[in-house]
Amino acid sequence: MNYSKQAKKLESFLEEEFKKNVPLVVINQRTLLYKNLKIVQDKDGWSIYYLNGDKVDTFRLKATASLAAKHYYKIDLKRVNEIKSLDLGYWTNFVDSNMFKLRFLKAKDPDLRDLYLCRWELTHQRAIKYKDQIALMFKQSF
User: Which of these, 33, 46, 89, 126, is most buried using a 10 Å CB contact count?
Assistant: First the structure.
């Protein structure tokens, strides 16, 4: 048996299946295409545009923007709103977690350090929860 030939066949087969199942086309690091929607990174985050140039929406994460593009294409606005709330929840908790971590490290007063540590842990756990939900939704969709 020639294992290298079988491995190459399997690799080409899986690559074809991946291309069929994941319709995201990577143009460059800042641009993706999903059917008739273009996902572009700009100063606000990741924006979704129609190919004719009309802006649809803006998201903070590339994964949530690509998920939203898929559901905008399907006209599933309930799911798009759910994705938008996950994106917003993750981003706010991630930013708050970094802010409380910085304040914890700079604080001198033990009471303030304890308060900032508690808030840091809480927002960090929330950010992880949102990140896991987004990752699960992305795996299920693509």
Answer: 46
Q: Tokens standing for 22? A: 């994941």
- Cβ atoms of 83 and 90 within 8 Å: the answer is no
Rounded to two decimals, what is the model's pTM?
A: 0.77
Distance CA 120, CA 94 (A): 10
Mode of pairing for the β-strands spanning 55-59 and 37-42: unpaired
Domain boundaries, the chain: 3-141
Q: What residues have CB less than 8 Å from 137, skipping those under 6 apart? A: 67, 83, 86
SS3 129: helix
Residue indicated by tokens 């001198």: 108
